[in-house]
Amino acid sequence: MDPLTLGLLVALATVIVLFSGVSVAVGLLIVATLFLWIFDGSRSLEALPELFYAELNSFALLSIPMFIIMGAAIASTRAGPDLYEALERWLTKVPGGLVVSNLGACALFAAMSGSSPATCAAIGKMGIPEMRRRGYPAEVASGSIAAGGTLGILIPPSVTMIVYGIATETSIGRLFLAGVIPGILLTLLFIAWAIFDTWRCGAASAALVSARYTWRQRFEILPRVLPFLAIIAGVLYALYGGVATPSETAAVGALLCIVAAVLIYRMYSRRDLWIVLRDSTRESVMILFIIGAAGVFSFMLSSLFVTQSVAQWIAALEVNRWVLMAVINVFLLVAGFFLPPVAVILMSAPILLPIITAAGFDPYWFAVIVTINMEIGLITPPVGLNLYVINGIAPDISLRQVLVGSMPFVGCMILAIILMCLFPGLATWLPDAVMGAAL
Amino acid sequence: MSSAPAASATAGADYRPPVALRALGAVSTLFGVIAALMILASVLITCHMIFVRGVLGQSTIWQTEAVIYLMIGATLLGLPYVQKLRGHVGVDLLPHMLPSSLRRPLAALVMVATILMVAAMVWYGWEMFHQAWRRGWKSESVWAFPLWITYLSVPLGFGLYLLQLLADLWLAVFGPDTTLPEPHPERSPD
């Protein structure tokens, strides 16, 4: 059979299998196994466990459980609420100060935890009730946290970026750097919208009480917040100072975060520590299982020549590269509506990357584009994870209200993608400046 | 949904699966704890490695390899526990849109397909382990670690996962409605 037709069949089968409700990892294994069996014969099945094992047999992958532990340790403490409170005390003079400090806290917490749902939960538990108490509408309160949480996968360290780096064999350190400026840009766009929205409410904002804090109150909260920020700064410094690989720095970061949680937040009890370990194990196993299965899946794609022929076919079309980019964006956006970021990246990267580089796009710039698309998927139905997290921590706000509140932020993200296309330097300048030009 | 929610809720709370199923659940949890400890061990070993190399200035022999084996082991041995916690993500959109008369057959089909796939991994994984064991394969490093130990995690992990899946299938068929898997793990208190 023609490899292109085969590719179409694989795509169709993958959609049908994944939509049946099977877990993503097993679904990928099933599709890969069926196609290998039918087109390569039953002997190829003997290699299944070896392919799975070989995909996991990599030191770089270790950074995933390490960064997850780091995030889980921070998320289990009161660091989120403290961070939120610290920003609130320092930002009282800014219009819409409370929303702004929420978004700022989300961005900083995203930098510490690298996880979107964790960011949402940590900041939202305190931020949403506080905003509503001070008269912000439920839509604004919940939408800003849902959107702010998505920054977790863009601002380094980010598990999504690590997975992209592994799937495309690009430098994880460089990917992290590529996410910094777009992350700040997106945070600023979110904040700009929040300030505008608060100002637009005008008369209603008389109800928005802003609290007053003394300088003493402002300073006394810092010792609880700064150590974690120092750890993150240290981890990132070690990464770029060339002291250690991402996996190594992440391991040290994980250990330091656990120690800090015990010392600063007095998290002594075995139960608390077990919860951190259990949650990180659950998430790591889930992601690593998908990665192993995706390894088998992409082996199937390349052994049946699907990967190569799709890339050749697209190159032969000779469409304008920006039309191509627009089509890819729509594809990523739709895939992100249904699948978790990790799965989208692992399944599409082997096929998309050759196309992207052939069209002259920078793979690090593309990582940021992919990630922002995935962020949109986190706050849009039907499977927007952050929407459910918000629904879990503020059950009295309807899913519809959360959705209405997050839609303007989706607009900000699309604007960010457009800005990234107009000014690719936003993603590529910092990695080039710090690590030298890419090879 | 059940027409008598109160009755079915109490049935769910009082319902105790057969001993064999509870024992299987305990085994899955035990391996979950082992997986968690393996991940913790890899954190500590990696830090140790950096200390030995960076501070003591000596070369490291076994650490990098050991950490990779621990991570692979944790992933595979953790499969049954994550299944028990309903932590394997999937797209449950279609099942939710279907009328309930079709939802059960689809769920059954998905479970059977999952079980067959995992069984295939156990079968071929055993072959892989057995070959490494019989021929005494060692890793190609100074450490020369016997590979059957790490290869064993493939049939063992998938085997335990298979047992947990069979237990879930039993519950789905014979258990009360309330013991059906909750599709949104992020909403559960676990």
Please give a structural write-up.
The complex is a heterodimer of chains A (439) and B (190). Chain A is mainly α and 439 residues long. Chain A has 21 helices and no strands. Chain A has helices spanning 3-19, 24-40, 48-56, 63-76, 79-90, 97-113, 116-133, 138-150, 159-168, 172-201, 215-220, 222-240, 246-265, 270-303, 306-317, 321-338, 341-358, 363-378, 385-393, 399-422, 425-435. The mean pLDDT of chain A is 86. Chain B has 190 residues and is mostly helical. Chain B has helices spanning 5-14, 19-55, 63-84, 93-97, 100-134, 147-174. In chain B, helix 2 (19-55) runs antiparallel to helix 3, helix 3 runs parallel beside helix 6 and helix 5 (100-134) packs antiparallel against helix 6 (147-174). The two termini of chain B are 24 Å apart. At the A-B interface, helix 2, helix 3, helix 4, helix 13 and helix 14 of A face helix 2, helix 3, helix 4, helix 5 and helix 6 of B.
Q: Give the CA-based shape of chain A.
A: globular
Q: What share of the residues of chain B lie within helices?
A: over 70%
Strand element count of chain B? 0
Low-confidence regions of chain A = none
CA(first)-CA(last) distance of chain B: 24 Å
- Quaternary class: heterodimer
Counted by DSSP, the helix tally of chain B is: 6
- Give the helices and strands of chain B as they follow along the chain: HHHHHH
Order of secondary-structure elements of chain A: HHHHHHHHHHHHHHHHHHHHH
Shape of chain B: elongated
Query: Strand content of the residues of chain B, in percent?
Result: under 5%
Uncertain residue ranges of chain B: 1-12, 182-190
What is the overall number of helices of chain A?
Answer: 21
What average pLDDT do the residues of chain A reach? 86
**Biggest interface:** A-B, 64 and 55 residues
The amount of helix of chain A comes to: over 70%
Largest sheet geometry of chain B = none
Overall mean pLDDT of chain B: 83
Distance between the termini of chain A: 37 Å
> In terms of structural class, how would the helical and strand content of chain A be classed?
mainly alpha
